[in-house]
Amino acid sequence: MALPRLDNRAARALFMHHHALAEQPSGGAKGADLLEMIHRLGFVQLDSINTVARAHDMILFSRRPSYRPKNLKRLYESDKALFEHWTHDAAVIPMAFYPHWHLRFQRDAQKLRARWKNWRRDGYEERFQTVLRHIQDHGPVCSSDVGKDEEKTSGGWWDWHPSKTALEYLWRSGALTVVGRVGFQKHFDLTERVIEQHLCPGVLPCDADRTVDWLCNAALDRLGFATSGEIAAFWDTVTPAEAKLWCVQALTKGEIQEIEVECADGRLRKCFTRHEAVATAQAVPTAPGRIRVLSPFDPMLRDRHRAERLFGFYYRIEVFVPEAKRTYGYYVFPLLEGDRLIGRIDMKAQRDASELSIKAVWPERKIRWSDARTKRLESELDRVRRFAGLDKVVFQDGWLRDPV
To answer: For the sheet containing 332-337, what is the strand order?
Structure first.
């Protein structure tokens, strides 16, 4: 019997629907409304690069234009409705998900000990009790508050002194919790002083099977459809083998079904999804036609290969590529119009001149760049300009480039 099929447009619609990009960008952007949005996405990745605004702020702004960074800071640091830990990278995550991170704490502890055995400086494990006592006596600390008597180095990732390494390990393994950031520097406190006691590691038992089941279900519900590998990669806690077994068991129990999904190039890819997914995809409203600037770390683009399969959009961030070898630029933002990724833009906030400087726009090959598109882009850039606290948008000469 032939498998149910999602054509490419329906697949894009369903994926965008689950990522809150198929609807009009509007609605509440603070308090409970903002928390609901983050809950819907699952997490919001944090990143320090501030070319225009930080990644997490751009992610939320693209869905809720009334969003402002202070709203996330209040939800995270004051309301304690979010906690910070890792998925595929550092992220803020709804506090309601915290019990499901106990497995992550255990696995990170094992992984980091193995990874740092020869790669890190010796002696970080001997610093655990010293660091914990310092926090117990003095309250939250950042990395510069510990290990002041240890050798000073260049401060690179590979040059952490033992106390800084201990601090990171204690956070990743659950003994410490990040309580906020100042200038993007993490501040840590004892977990039992931040998290409700009955939820703390060591008090609430870690049920690995239950956690794997929750993580796989939650990943599929946010992806819309996925292979077992994509389910494993979403939170980056479940192993590929565990996700594959979960899919087999869920399929046998009738909780999910297998379908074929049409890629942008017409190829078919087998995926798992909920039974109602095909009907849901057909009912998703037409995505708004306005142009939106997306963060390079937007959840819709996190899995670069999936974005390429669904949208035919090849994207790689070039921050770590030498300038002479870059195809586009240091930090280039994707452009979304309706349900298509139509190009990318190289822009930067010039704070001293209070302007959003537009260096280049590269349309995708099949996109005809019209005057109407330019006007829609100008409208979006004016919104971004106001969000970034700038006075004007300035297009540099030759900003409209030929497709690459």
So the answer is: 291-293, 332-337, 340-350, 355-363, 392-395
pLDDT of residue 154: 43
Q: Taking Cα atoms as reference points, which of 315, 339, 349 lies closest to residue 329?
A: 315
Residue with tokens 């406190």: 189
Give residues with Cβ within 8 angstroms of 353, minimum separation 6.
none
Q: Taking the complete model, does pTM exceed 0.70, yes or no?
A: yes
CB hemisphere CA count around 239 (13 angstroms): 9
Backbone angles phi, psi at 392, to 5 degrees: -155, 165
Selection from 284, 271, 236 nearest residue 89 by Cα: 236
DSSP run (H or E) holding 195: none
In angstroms, the CA 14 to CA 30 distance is 26
> Locate tokens 């090849």: which residue?
314
pLDDT < 50 positions in the chain: 154-158
pLDDT digits (tens, 9 = 90+) for 338-353: 999 999 999 999 999 9
317/73 Cα distance (integer angstroms)? 26
CA distance 38 to 193: 24
Distance from the Cα of residue 221 to its chain's centroid: 16
**What are 185's two structure tokens?**
């520097």
**CA dist., res. 269 & res. 233, Å (int):** 17
Q: What is the DSSP letter of 204?
A: B
Residue 27 CA, chain-centre distance (Å), reads 21
12, 281 Cβ separation under 8 angstroms: no
User: Residue 305 and residue 322: Cα distance in Å, rounded?
Assistant: 23
C-alpha R_g of the chain: 22
- What letter would DSSP give residue 182? E
Q: Quick one: tokens of 133?
A: 């006592």
Q: Which residues contact 327 (CB under 8 A, 6 or more apart)?
A: 318, 404
